[in-house]
Amino acid sequence: MAAQNATDAHVVTEPDGVRDREIGAEQQHLDRVYRRLEEKIHEAEFLMDDAAKRGQVGTPGALAERDAQVFRAGVHLNRLNSEFEDFLFGRIDLLLGKDGKKGPDGAYTSVEPADDAVRDDRAEIAETLHIGRIGVLDADYAPLVIDWRAPAAAPFYRSTPVAPGRVVRRRVIRSKGRKVLGVEDDLLRPELTATLGGAELAVVGDGALMAALGQARSHTMRDIVASIQAEQDMVIRAPAASVTEVEGGPGTGKTAVALHRAAYLLYQDRRRYAGGILVVSPTPLLVAYTEGVLPSLGEEGQVAIRAVGNLVDGAEADTYDEPAVSRIKGSSRMLKVLRKAVRGALDSPSAAPSPGGSASSADDGQLSLDGLGTAAPADTPDRLRVVAFGGRVELGADDLRRIRQTVLGGTAPVNLLRPRARRLILDALWSKSGAAKRYSDPELLAEARQGFDEDISTEDYFLDFLAAWWPELTPRGVLAAMADERRLSRWARRVLNPREVRLLARSLKRLDEHGRGPLSVHDVALLDELETLLGVPFRPKQPREADPLAHLTGLEELMPERSETRRERAERLALERTDYAHVIVDEAQDLTPMQWRMVGRRGRTATWTIVGDPAQSSWSDPDEAGAARDEALGTRPRRRFELTVNYRNPAEIAELAAKVLALAMPGMRSPAAVRSTGVVPRFAVAGGDLAASVRDEALHLLADVDGTVGVVVPMGRRAEARRWLAGLGDRVVVLGSLEAKGLEYDATIVVTPAEIADESPAGLRVLYVALTRATQRLTVLSGERDDPDTEGVPDLLRD
Ligand SMILES: Nc1ncnc2c1ncn2[C@@H]1O[C@H](COP(=O)(O)OP(=O)(O)OP(=O)(O)O)[C@@H](O)[C@H]1O
After folding, report:
1. What H or E segment, with its residue span, contains residue 399?
2. Which residues are in the UvrD-like helicase ATP-binding domain (predicted)?
3. How far is the CA of 254 from the centre of ligand 1 (A)?
4. What is the mean pLDDT of the chain?
5. What CA–CA distances, in Å, run from 569 to 247, 536, 606, 643, 786?
6. Ligand 1 within 6 A of 773 CB?
7. Is the CB of 742 under 6 A from ligand 1?
8. Are 234 and 609 in contact (CB under 8 A)?
9. Residue 725 Cα, ligand 1 centroid: separation in angstroms?
10. Which of 469, 502, 534 is the last residue of a domain?
11. Given 626, 646, 666, which residue is the final one in a domain?
């Protein structure tokens, strides 16, 4: 059943004066809470003051103690200050519980009422709990406010008239600063005559959910903490173990639920999750839209929200490839191509960060060597010549090729193979020098060999040769090397067809020879894969400079620098690829196979929450993406939830969108809209001047709604559409069809639907996304290609 707990609940029209009296009662409670908060702020300030004084003692112990105290007090003060505004939002009035046990928050723990709590449909309220963004206890440790994430707050969200538990009345309190503005009640046991302190329980208002949904939208998402619905609450509070998968149509609250879940997990187990929750979002626009939600829930800094194109440090994708190229770059076939490319790129100098390698010759010692890659500084040397024991020893192109092939034989990361290559080169030189024959005594032989190795391998020429012949490759460099169509077709043989090779190579020409230049969203997953395939070689740590505490602790003496052990290296590599404790994937249906691999690497030991809607997928091959998702999640058990109610679109808009859903995914059900506005979508037809039509429609909608207007255009029309709408103010936003994902506006114009649908194989699903962004008004503006009928209804949206 749909979780319309607030909408199903019984609502009573209150007699005059009741509302004011009830608001007054809540005001009194809020005043008490504020007095208590002020006391706590004084306590925190005192603690900081005291801690600062202790710091003056100056011993290392006192310093550490001061730091810890100041930190704790600072966090405390910060939380109190930031959550001071509007943090009390709910109240539940409860029957007597089955047992009389209280939890750590001071509330009774029983979910079910006592057998004798109700007699002849009459009952006395036994407990009243106020719910807020943080918990506040009074001086006697009785709860003034319960944290919304505490178990005692769950009935506020979960109780329905069908399963009310102990809840008789649920109240949403609206306040601003210190002032209570209003209350909205739902009666969950309408059959009861309940009393509180002898007086009959009052019921006020027409439902908090509807009040929340009717508000004008701004450019940022609001939290839904005061009106979370029962089916949403089940997801938010689901145990963190393994994988929680959530599916639901547009507007069912998936993004909101995912963010509230992050806050809930932090509350449940802060030690485990602090700093370790990653939220992967499809676009930077959605990141910007949602990033205020967690701070409004009192969680700042512990959760990283990153767009999928910004997951790799230092790589900010700001470009979209055309659909045919995205399909190639996102496909798991790329893995084979990249594996070949990292090995092949050793012969393409641009893949190295800076061309090294031109070695100078020298004949001034017992040994000299000469890396003869002289044609151009960046060329790979094809000969190595040393003078040893008075004679010349040379490795030619064939020798070097053989050594390289031997070293590259396995699947180890290419950048980590240089030590092995170096060893084989020295072996080959030694063997060619014939020196082994001169020593019959094995000890002398070993000594001579050691000397030979040390002498050669410390010479600058040899180091230069190695740097040129086996350069450290960078992911960007390899990507740039793939822009060479001839080379790419070698690496992609039997994986990509010639047309695909051409498209891929051409799209990478945006980058210069070292891979600098604008990256597309799909390039980023390739870079991440390349980084794994290449490996990050160990670099000895630079001695640390001026650590002020070093002389106090003596730690430097206790821990001298050592070379890295294999285990340390494994740990370091694991750390470098930041691994999160929990990964939340929003709009999961859009991740390509290569992106799943990238995200999977960030959650190898994580628990997961994955929210998405297959009907909104812009990826053309859901089966391939599904397989990559399975691989990223491994064998972890999964728990599935479905969200069934659309809180965003009025029924009139949802019905229209359902027509496209029926074309895009026949048989798929769209979620039930929770409200209707009575305003049907408007159909308009652009005359000869599309720009003027779009502008006119935008002006209409600006007059119709108080909040935002989103204009969704085909990806290729983004730049011109921005010009068409210039000067209309910041309530109007232009979006390419792929950028509309996850966002919402009070009013939306969908421009030339057929063009959006034709943009890619997943175009109909992309159009479905565009049609489901509006909370109040929708205008569909057709062009010629839409074949509109006399009413202006485009072919795609007719019955
Ligand atoms: N319980 C609720 N109370 C108030 N508003 C809600 C509730 N649930 C969802 N909403 C609102 O409904 C809108 C849609 O929510 P959200 O963006 O999380 O949905 P979604 O499932 O991620 O949608 P889409 O798949 O289309 O991106 C938001 O404005 C959100 O605040």
Report:
1. helix 397-407
2. 227-650
3. 6
4. 83
5. 40, 10, 21, 44, 59
6. no
7. yes
8. no
9. 28
10. 469
11. 646
Q: Is residue 563 part of a domain?
A: no
Atom of ligand 1 nearest to the CA of 256: 18
Q: Is this model's pTM higher than 0.80 or not?
A: no
Q: Do 72 and 164 share a domain, yes or no?
A: yes
Could you tell me if residue 636 is left (phi over 0), alpha (psi between -120 and 50 degrees) or otherwise beta? beta
311: domain CATH number is: 3.40.50.300
Q: Write out pLDDT tens, residues 104-142.
A: 888 888 989 999 999 988 999 999 999 988 888 888 888
Q: Ligand 1: which of 224, 235, 738 to mutate, judged by most atoms within 8 Å of the beta carbon?
A: 224
Least confident of 2-6, 220-224, 243-247: 2-6
Per-residue DSSP letters for 612-652?
Answer: E-GGG---S-HHHHHHHHHHHHTT--EEEEEE-EESSS-HH
Please tell me the distance between residue 787's alpha carbon and the centre of ligand 1 in angstroms. Answer: 33
Distance CA 552, CA 554 (A): 6
Best residue for ligand 1 mutational test, from 228, 744, 773 (most atoms within 8 Å of Cβ)? 744
Residue 50 has pLDDT above 80, yes or no: no
Residue 290 assigned ligand-binding role: no
Q: Ligand 1 centroid to 696 CA: how many Å?
A: 29
The complex scores an ipTM of 0.99
SS3 at position 553: helix
CA angle (176 as vertex; 161, 44 as ends), nearest 5: 105
Q: Which atom of ligand 1 is the closest one to the Cα of 232?
A: 1
Residue 578 covered by a domain: yes
Which residue from 184, 215, 232, 254 has its CB within 8 A of the most atoms of ligand 1, so it is best to mutate?
Answer: 254
Residues in CB range of 666: below 8 A, 6 or more apart: none
308 with 339, same domain: the answer is no
- 420: burial class by Cβ within 10 Å (0-12, 13-18, 19+)? middle
**288 Cα to the center of ligand 1, angstroms:** 16
pLDDT at 198: 84
Domains in the chain, number: 5
12-26, 112-126, 730-744, 748-762: the lowest-pLDDT one: 12-26
Give the pLDDT band of residue 159 (cuts 50, 70, 90). confident
H-run or E-run covering 200: strand 199-200
Residue whose pair of structure tokens reads 């995912």 in the numeric block: 258
Report the DSSP beta bridge partners of residue 511: none
| Ligand 1 pocket member 213 (CB < 6 A) | yes
207 marked among binding-site residues: no
Number of alpha carbons in the 13 Å side-chain half-sphere of residue 524: 27
419 and 483 in a single domain? The answer is no
250 in a known ligand binding site: yes
Establish whether 248 is an annotated binding residue: yes
Has residue 677 been placed in a domain? yes
Determine if ligand 1 sits within 6 Å of the CB of residue 256.
yes
Domain assignment present for residue 595? The answer is yes
CB-ligand 1 contact for 212 (6 Å cutoff): yes
**Residue 264 shares a structural domain with residue 334:** no
Largest CA distance in the chain: 113
Higher pLDDT, 566 or 320: 320
Task: Looking at the structure, tell me whether residues 290 and 196 fall in a common domain.
Answer: no
- Bridge partners of 778, per DSSP, are 748
Is 292 assigned to a binding site?
no
Domain of 490, in residue numbers: 323-349+474-518
251 labeled binding residue: yes
Neighbouring CB atoms inside 10 A of 368's CB total 19
427 and 405 housed in the same domain: yes
Measure 705 CA to ligand 1 centroid, in angstroms: 19
Closest residue by Cα to atom 27, ligand 1, is 742
650 known member of a binding site: no
- Confirm or reject: Cβ of 208 under 6 Å from ligand 1: no
pLDDT band at 621 (very low <50, low <70, confident <90, very high): confident
Same domain, 248 and 394: no
Q: Is 59 annotated as a binding-site member? A: no
